[in-house]
Design a protein that fits this description.
single chain, alpha/beta, Rossmann fold, 8-stranded mixed sheet, 5-stranded parallel sheet, AAA domain-containing protein
Amino acid sequence: MKKVLFIGDDHNFRKEYQQLDPESDFKTARSSDPVKREEEYDILIISDREVQPLTLSTFVQDCRAHQIYYLISDNHKNSIIDNKITLCKQNGIKPIQPKQTNTQIVHRILGISHKANGIRNVCAVMGTHPQVGTTMITLELAKKLAEQEQTVCVMGLNQFNPGTAFVENYVGNTLDELYAQIVDNRQTIKPHELINYMHFDENRKFHYLAGNQDFSKRGYFKSEDIEHLIGMASEQFDVVLLDVGFSPCNNLTLQGLFKAEVKLVVGSQQPHSAKMWNQMNNDILRILGLTTDEFLLVVNRYKLDLPTDAKALQNTLEVPVITTIPEFGIEGTICEMEKKLLTESRDKTVKKRAENSMESMLAVVNERLGTKVTRTKEKTGLWNRLLS
């Protein structure tokens, strides 16, 4: 049985936690009560109304718990909230930011926020800022999944970018061109018809519905329309990858995140990357119940000689790193100009290093999506002659 200790006196929070996790052994205590704190707990939740920031580090040293959370109260001065968050990071404590309901807080602690609504075979890829490589990484992942004999489709839900820069001779529809068929009940696309509107990449073996080409339509789509579109794709393909862009302030990106079982965020070592992510998280994602521990971080254009390494990024963004993709400089630009992916580069060194990075990401996605890895055994030598 999971042992949980709450340092505080919020009866409504205690009631909400026990309703959502009835099998846990939930206890409460005051900061001055040493008896219950002598035990070892799976989860320790501390209210800043009970334990002030100045005494927090000393307080947790006397506690034995696998996970520690600090409930931060709202304050009209953002600097005070930021200081509490910084203090938590320094002491290995997970901060629970203000302006959240008790349900959202408990979901955050239990790691179940919105996951019940996720579709098992859907993975969303989001960027921390423009031009960070979200589309390229989505297409790379699609290619690797298709090599496992999975039926794969990529859906462009990026409101600002159709995402055809890496596709030679795109012949499918774009998302904005399907607007009428998506929103008009008289023209609604049937699930089995969706494939007819997509581009099929003969070399990479996956289907692709590019994103908005007409930016004026980016705000037209309703939540239920995008939800229906993702649902149709999940019925028709083994794996659905969503390129949701970089801005969670529209229904395209948000529904992509809500419906995806696996959520990747693509960032870089630029300070701008962490700044934009933290702003998106504070202003939009956490308020809607999407928490940082639902995401996995892919660091693109990674340089080993920079002071901000992968571990530092993981701590700053509060998202675990699953792979780093090296900075390829001019070779990366050449690939984009030739509409090639990094794993298709004519430079053998670039191709090999990119393959290694993508394999690490693929292994994690396979495990999370539960996809079956199928590899065709190469027939060589005696085996080949016997079959000839």
